[in-house]
Amino acid sequence: MKHIRIISPASAINPQYVVDAQARLESWGYRVSIGAHALGQHGCFSGTKEERLADINEAFSDPDVDIILCSRGGYGLQQIVDKIVLPTRPKEQWPLVVGFSDITVLHALMSINNVSSLHAPMCEPIATLPENSPTLVRLREALAEGVVAETNVIGGNLSVLYGLQGTPYSLNHMIDRCATPPTLLLEDIGEKQYHIDRMLNNLRMSGVFARINGVIIGQFTNCPDDPKMGCSLEETIRSYFVEYGYPIISDAPYGHEDLNIPIYLSCNRLRK
Is the pLDDT of residue 272 over 60? Predict the structure, then answer.
């Protein structure tokens, strides 16, 4: 029986979502434990930096933990990512990291270490969506089947990726680890159109878009079109990729909506 550890490495979460998610995951046949500080609160965070870091490091170090499910995103992982202690055992024995949004930080950490992770819904949707919802059906399949993919996908939340620029966890460092050019996944929530344009321009000037083989544009939730920009948000985003001639998938089901289909990241053979 696989063991899922639920941790809260970023913002605080309503404890009931964690309890209800635990019950549903157990009904799927998993053994589920909860990190020591996963239900806590310290300001907007689930705990102090030290408490959140302790839960991450404990989950990574425990050889009995098969899957690390982050309870929610929000903000907080960038404060502590450089202090995470990764397992010393073989990488095929590392826990599978599951989550999205701010958990993009952990996906970046896994990517530069040549380890796959799962961009997927977290505790609130697991607790509240109908059992037969496409999101939960696909999540259950993804957790049971393991890595199934035909291409290497990196990325996640645009704001988080932008915040990692200039650090060891940047997109260019992720691409450096890829044997062949990867596909870039982008999603976001609650950002103004001009800010999205600013972030994309940063990635363009840093050379990211010239080093990928395609882009998946996920959901940009609560990111309205700004008439002052002279075009729609989708047009702004697509304009950054058309010159490269690779495939562009728009409005893909990844992000902050009920339909948030799990997708494995960094799952092709990578450079050591």
Answer: no
Domain segments of the chain as ranges: 3-148, 153-249
Mean pLDDT (the chain, rounded): 96
What pLDDT does 269 receive? 44
Confidence (pLDDT) at 146: 79
Q: Which CATH superfamily is domain 3-148 in?
A: Murein tetrapeptidase LD-carboxypeptidase, N-terminal domain (3.40.50.10740)
pLDDT of residue 268: 58
Residue 150's pLDDT is what? Answer: 64
**Going edge to edge, which strands form the sheet with 214-221?**
153-157, 183-189, 214-221, 248-249
Stronger pLDDT, 150 or 51, i.e. the higher one: 51
DSSP string of the chain, one letter each residue: --EEEEE--SB---HHHHHHHHHHHHHTT-EEEE-TTTT--BTTBSS-HHHHHHHHHHHHH-TT--EEEES--SS-GGGTGGG----SS-GGGSPEEEE-GGGHHHHHHHHHTT--EEE---HHHHHHS-TTSHHHHHHHHHHHH----SS-EEEEEHHHHHHTTTSTTSHHHHHHTBSSPPEEEEEEES--HHHHHHHHHHHHHTT-GGG-SEEEEEEEET----GGGTS-HHHHHHHTTGGG---EE-S-S-SSSS----EEES-S-B--
| pLDDT > 80? residue 245 | yes
Summarised one tens digit per residue, pLDDT across range 216-242 is 999 999 999 999 999 999 999 999 999
CATH 3.30.1360.60 for domain 153-249: no
The amino acid occupying position 258 is: D
CA distances from 103 to 59, 73, 199, 201 (A): 15, 6, 18, 23
